[in-house]
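Note to self: keep these together.
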Amino acid sequence: MRLLVASDLHGSLPALHFLLERANELRPDLLVLLGDLVYHGPRNPLPAGYDTPQLLRTMPDLTALPCPVTAVRGNCDAEVDLALLPFPVADNAWIAVDGLRVFASHGHHVPERPPCPGFARGTVLLRGHTHVPRGETLDGLHFWNPGSLALPKGGFPASYGVFEAGAFRVFGLDGRLLLEHRPSAA
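Structure:
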């Protein structure tokens, strides 16, 4: 199974166009959006191509992709914005993929490192929020983050994630591999 994972578009129309192009090229089984889709947030600068009205007019193109969309709410996603999206947005989502239990959330309510009460060993915590790519295993929990398509932080370039063939990979927009993580047995 192939997942295409993106987070933290923050209203950037170029980021959305890039995501649509990658989804059409990769033809994933599922597109996972990890929140902060429309608004840039009070502590972030305006991303390149910030155009929320056009972004919202373009969002229906995601529903025309040959894969379903699973979207979770970020800390900058206001209900007024979510009501304008053409797909449902949950607080979090469980995804079963290739024998893994993946908990998808924006991440602002989930610890960055163990202990993580309520999560069994072997669980993948797939999150955005920090805008920093991540792939590591700590105390039997797997932490994955695709970084941000629009407002990268920590010296990283804008990025997105792909899970397939047992590995989570994060790529820069130029296609360069930034990290790879293969979850080990719990």
